[in-house]
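Dear Dr. H.,

I hope your travels went smoothly. While you were away I took the liberty of generating a structure for the chain from your last submission, since the lab meeting agenda had it listed for discussion. I wanted you to have the full record in hand beforehand rather than looking at slides cold. The sequence, exactly as received, is reproduced here:
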Amino acid sequence: MTSDSNPRTIVLDGETVAFERGETLFEIAQRHRRDVPSLCYDDRLDPFGGCRLCIVQLEGARKPVASCTTKAEPGMRVTTHNATLDMHRRVILEMVASENRDVDVDELSGYASQEMSTLLDRYDARSGRFDGAHSGTSRPDDGNPFILRDYDNCISCYRCVRVCAEQEGDYAISVMNRGFDTQITTEFGGFLEDSSCTFCGQCVQTCPTGALGDIKALRAKDVPEPVEKTRSVCPYCGVGCAVDILSKGDKVVGIQPAMDGPANEGALCVKGQFAFDFVHHPDRLKTPFVRNDHGQLVPASWDEALDKAAAGLLEAVNEHGRHSLYAVASGRAPNEAGYLMQKFVRAGLGTSYIDNCSRA
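The corresponding predicted structure, in token form, is as follows:
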């Protein structure tokens, strides 16, 4: 048994480090800034051990072990990098890449879409010496407007399947067949809209190869400006999900969930993920409108519009009483605006008839 005065320790690359009960070697290596690669790992998901890139050498073990599924035990001596391990990782990457149609995809595809191409460069694994049969069959016939199903770039890491099950609880996608015939699919091989998919986009953002892509963001792939990310908060309900707004020039081109968002931890609903077209919609009002003496809507200044609204509210209260008014606050309004709205209705108009349109 160990105690606080005698903590659990392992030797990691020659350095004695402490660990907590239940930690894996991969988690310990990450915490101590060891750059151990992986393609099937997502820290929100149960360890899978499928890609074998995270192998480390464990003293006394006959073969390298997958660090993401190996729990630490006191006294272990672990090596995360040496020539042999790097050779194994390079060969694995070469074999994985050989099955794909593309190894380079646009960064707009998704949050994790550059992981494989980055590792290929890091380990100089673009040799093409294993070029041969390809796996995965894309679904260009799936006409949903949100998720690209480009399975010719799938490496069967199953992160999409696992995030759908473990994080969302939807179980909308699964795996069928084996070997080169392995395929990510829906029930009965149908379209996403006919499955239990809620189009949250979690599968898109965890995919390390762009096999699942953000169709709406990819509309801007040929726009020459670089992609910029701006941290913000989703405007659609009161949860407060953190998002990264993707922009090119002065145009919003996509939304990604913030993986470190305290409220959402990398998750978004379909509205937060894909419903941003209103920002640049040509019908979006850019100035207030009021009705003139002929009942026609005409542009006005903010002062004119507010004076008109105040006069109308006062007239309704004087003629029909305070309970003749009912207020509905916008679900896109921030909490501060919602507070002011209810204060205005309750204190200003003297009624409690107020609701909001948020139904997340």
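Two observations you may find useful: The mean pLDDT is 93. DSSP finds nine helices and 16 strands in the chain.

With kind regards,
E. W.
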